[in-house]
Amino acid sequence: MGGLCCSNSPDKITEKTMTESGPVVLRSTANPTVRHLIRLRENRYRRKSDRIIVDGWRETSQAMESGLTLCGVYVREEGADDLSGTDEEAQSRVVDRANAVSKKVFVSDAIMEKISFGQSPRGVVAEFERPDRGLDRLKLPKSAFVLVLDQIEKPGNVGAVFRCADAAGVDAILLSDCQDPFNPNAIRNSLGAIFRVPTATGTSESIAKYLAHGGFSVMGARVESSTPFWSVSWAGSVAVVLGSEAHGLGERWKTIPQYVDGKLTGDHISVPGVRIPMAGKVDSLNISVSAAVIAFEAVRQRGHAGSSC
Fold first, then answer.
1. Would you tell me the crossing angle of helices 287-302 and 155-168 to the nearest 10 degrees?
2. Is the CB of residue 122 less than 8 Å from the CB of residue 57?
3. 164 near 292, Cβ under 8 Å?
4. Are the beta carbons of 274 and 240 closer than 8 angstroms?
5. Beta bridge partners of residue 255, listed in sequence order
6. Which among 4, 52, 85, 178 has the fewest CB atoms less than 10 Å away?
7. Are 221 and 275 in contact (CB under 8 A)?
8. In the CATH scheme, what is the code of domain 10-129?
9. Torsional class of 103: left (φ above 0), alpha (ψ -120 to 50), beta (otherwise)
10. What backbone torsions phi and psi does residue 135 show, to the nearest 5 degrees?
11. CB within 8 A of 86, min separation 6: which ones?
12. Alpha helix (H) ranges present in the chain?
């Protein structure tokens, strides 16, 4: 079932969605396409199917602009072409693109509610092929500033960090043993920034090797550190690792492998810690807040506010 939508040719999509008397509307939860879309809300099924599902006109437009392969765009049978409201421009782009490749499918209001995230329809649901986010595909500029998220379990927090990173001009986010970045809640909380900010996923070991081999200065955000984040230099190629609010980094990311002339030496080098000083009794911040505070200080130091670091 994973290839249900993308494997269809444009002719089959057209035959499925249009007849001489007008558009065909999907109305039954027994329909294979509808069952497939509902199951895409499950993390395991999304991974098995190599698909992702996106809610909202703005987010769908951004997913299209990022180059993802479109499988289908599902819109309400009533008002699908009513271009009004705050997402008018995005809606127009999505509808035009979906029509151009014969991927627009009409669904009843009841089915839209079933296939939407949290049963909260936002006008459109789109299915895409899952993009490859391997480290080997990541292309970074010289002197890049990167955030590393380590073992973040709540997809909403992952999405919120992407939103902050997009605002600050962070060059990339690396996800170390994290939740699926294409979880619908992560996409929604990012406001589509997940499709704009370059990202790659991997284990802590593979990401540590990637950064060490790339000559990055790596710092860990740690509440127990004595070094305020504003007192260090954020120049050059820098990565800062942030852990979960509940557990922090622990013993992880205390060191990274050492490379000399592009080769592993077998030794490890220490990862210095930085902290965000806090005056109150609270001893931790939400990871998206921590990421924003550190990222904007890095932007300030590097002199690239409002553009890519």
1. 20
2. yes
3. yes
4. yes
5. 270
6. 85
7. yes
8. 3.30.1330.30
9. alpha
10. -60, -30
11. none
12. 10-17, 32-39, 43-49, 57-65, 88-100, 109-115, 155-168, 184-190, 204-213, 287-302
Q: Look up residue 159 and give its amino acid.
A: G
**What 8-state DSSP symbol labels residue 151?**
S
Q: Model's pTM, two decimal places?
A: 0.86
Given a contact cutoff of 8 angstroms between Cβ atoms, the answer to whether 46 and 182 are in contact is yes
Which pLDDT tens digits describe the chain residue by residue (309 residues)? 444 446 443 334 333 444 444 678 999 999 999 999 999 999 999 999 999 999 999 999 999 999 999 999 999 987 554 545 557 899 999 999 999 999 999 999 999 999 998 877 888 999 999 999 999 999 999 999 999 999 998 999 999 999 999 999 999 999 998 878 899 999 999 999 999 999 999 999 999 999 999 999 999 999 889 999 999 999 999 999 999 877 788 788 999 999 988 888 889 999 999 999 988 887 778 999 999 999 999 999 998 544 444
d(CA 215, CA 61): 36
Handedness of CA 222, 227, 230, 234 (dihedral sign): negative
Q: Name 189's Cβ contacts closer than 8 Å, sequence gap at least 6.
A: 155, 156, 157, 158, 159, 160, 162, 163
Q: What is d(CA 158, CA 183) in angstroms, rounded to the nearest whole number?
A: 9
In the chain, which segments carry CATH 3.40.1280.10?
Answer: 135-302
Q: Are 238 and 229 in contact (CB under 8 A)?
A: no
Distances (CA, A) of 9 to 16, 55, 67, 83: 11, 24, 19, 28
Element (H, E) at 221: strand 217-221
CATH architecture of 135-302: 3-Layer(aba) Sandwich (3.40)
CA distance 164 to 134: 22
